[in-house]
Amino acid sequence: MQPIISISKVSKTYATGQQALNNVDLEIRQGEIFGLLGPNGAGKTTLIGVVCGIVNPTSGTVTVGGYDIQRDWRAARAMIGLVPQELTNNAFDSVIGTVRFSRGVFGKPPDPARLRRVLEDLALWDRRDSRVMTLSGGMKRRMLIAKALAHDPQVLFLDEPTAGVDVELRQSMWQAVRRLRDAGVTIILTTHYIEEAELMADRIGVIHRGEIVVVDDKSALMQRLGRKQLTLELQAPLAELPPALAARGLTLAASGRELVYTYDAQAEASGIAGLLSDLEDAGIGFRDLRTTQSSLEDIFVDLVREK
Fold first, then answer.
1. What are the pLDDT digits (tens) for 44-70?
2. Which residue in 26, 178, 259, 265 has the most C-beta neighbors within 10 A?
3. Pairing state of beta strands 228-234 and 203-208?
4. What local confidence, expressed as pLDDT, does residue 262 receive?
5. What is the pLDDT of residues 155-181, one digit of tens each?
6. Alpha helix (H) ranges present in 69-155?
7. What Rg, from alpha-carbon coordinates, does the chain have?
8. Euclidean distance between CA atoms 159 and 191, whole angstroms
C-alpha cells in the first residue's frame, strides 16, 4: 500500500545556523495512528511544519496523498488538519462560527450536519454559541481539534493535543481520536505523555537532534528493545551480594530487601533457573517475586541515551 505521507531526505537549517532536521526519511501509512516521540528541541514541531507547508525545508521532498507539498501546496494542504500546541483562536467569535469559518477557508460548501457531528464528538455542541474567550483551557484544546476537522481532512496532526487537559477530558478526546482512525483518518501524534503513545499508537517513531532514531510497530519495538526485570523479595536483607552471585548482574534494592535481575525477554535462555539455583546454594531465601516489562518510556530514554 502506498503511504499517505512520504518524507524523503528532508533537512532544515534555519538562518541562525541551527540544524533542526537532518536527512529525515519517513513514511506514514493510511489509516494508522503514528506516535512521534522526542525530547524538547528534537525537531518534532519543525517536521510537522514542513509536512504542513508552514516551514520550507532546506532540502528534500514531502508528498501527502501523492501531492508534493511545495509544488501542489493547495491540494496537499487541503488533505491535512493541524492541531498546534498553541491555543490560537479568535477569542470573540463563537465556537460554531470559528469551525464554520475554518471549513470555508478550504473552499468546502456549508454542511451544518457535519459540523454538528464534529462538535458532538468533542463534547462541544452545547457550547456552540459560546464565545471562545469563555471556554476553559480543555475546551479550547478540543475546539482546535474541531477546527482542524471542519474541512474533512484525511490526515490529522495532533501536536501535544492534551497539554493542560484533565484526565477525564483526555479520555474523551482519545475516544474521539479512535473513532477518527476507524473512519480512515490518519493520525500523527506528538506527546509528552508517553503512556498515551503506548496506549494509542500503532507505530512509533523516535526523533532526536533532527534525526529519526527508530521507526517500528509499537509491539515489535517493545519486544525488540524492551527488557524484563525479576524482583525477588528476600526473607532477610543482605548487606552485599555474595561473591558467588557477582557474575549474575544482580542489583540490591530496597535497603537490601530486594534482588533485581534484568534479562532479555526474547533470549532463548533467561538465566532465571540458574539464578534460583545459585540463590538456593547460597542459602538466600525469598518470600515473593514479581516481573515487570520495560515501558515505552524506558525504551525511549535508552534510545536517546544511546544516540
1. 999 999 999 999 999 999 999 999 999
2. 259
3. unpaired
4. 80
5. 999 988 776 666 666 777 788 788 888
6. 73-78, 95-105, 112-121, 137-149
7. 24
8. 7
- Do 263 and 250 touch, CB atoms closer than 8 A? no
Query: Letter for the amino acid at 119?
Result: L
- For residue 148, what is its C-alpha cell? 482542524
User: What is the reported pLDDT for 89?
Assistant: 63
Q: Could you confirm whether domain 5-223 is CATH 3.30.300.70?
A: no
Sheet holding 250-253, edge to edge: 250-253, 258-263, 228-234, 286-293
pLDDT score for 307: 61
Write the DSSP assignment of 174-234 as a string of letters. Answer: HHHHHHHHHTT-EEEEE-S-HHHHHHH-SEEEEEETTEEEEEEEHHHHHHHH--EEEEEEE
Which residues contact residue 54 at a Cβ distance below 8 angstroms, ignoring those fewer than 6 apart? none
| Spatial distance between the Cα atoms of 7 and 62, rounded to a whole number of angstroms | 5
Average pLDDT of 285-290? 87
183 backbone dihedrals φ, ψ, rounded to 5°:
-85, 0
Q: pLDDT tens digits for 64-111?
A: 999 999 999 999 999 999 988 776 667 789 999 999 999 998 889 999
> Global pTM?
0.76
The answer to whether residues 244 and 283 touch, using CB atoms and an 8 Å cutoff, is no
Residues in CB range of 18: below 8 A, 6 or more apart? none
Domain with CATH 3.40.50.300 in the chain: 5-223
Residues of the chain with CATH 3.30.70: 227-306
Which residue's entry shows cell 525477554? 265
What is the overall mean pLDDT for the chain? 86
Quote the pLDDT of residue 38.
Answer: 84
CATH code of the domain occupying 227-306: 3.30.70
Q: Cα–Cα distance between 97 and 138 in angstroms, integer?
A: 19
